[in-house]
# Entry
Amino acid sequence: MGLNCGCPVGTKLTSPVDQACKSSFGQIQKILFQRRLNAGALNTISAANIITAAGWSALTAANDSTKVVVSPEVSNPETEPGAARTFGGDNQTAGGIQIIVGREATSFTAAFYELDQSVIATLKKLQCEDLAVYFIDEYGNIGCATDDNGTTYHGIPIRSLFIGDKDFGGLTDPDSNAMSFNMLPNWSDNFVIVKQSTMNGFNPLTDINNPAGA
# Structure
């Protein structure tokens, strides 16, 4: 049951919903970090607040587990979706056909260029937290998750956040620090894009910021 297959199966196959428009996310340029839980409950943001500057300002200024931290500009973002986890082959399984027992996590990697290392040291503190992330792309769209068809939204849970030490660029490249984390199998099943065009007069890419001294 590694693929989370239900049993018994339904009376018929489930048809996918017809899609009127294409769905694609742009280049990830910033990441919003938030603790996954607040007092044991999932951290969420309402449909009304996710599209307002005031809604996000309240979270970046918060003094509790709802606080959101905005990353510096992210470069070279790459994702590698998890492959199938398999068992068998050769004489282990009938016909030598492998059995799919699950899927691997999706890895995310990126780089920060020319950052002061005091900023990196602060980011490293996030490595000890149970986190979820919101992605912001080049257009100001927000990539996140919803469990109730858009009544509320929440970050995508991540594991194994790593912020790397300084890498000297030398003569031809800028200095950099690597970042990586993993997203759990099936993370994208509830992935949604909140379009910048629906925002209430603001652009998340430029207008969601960490308060001074916070």
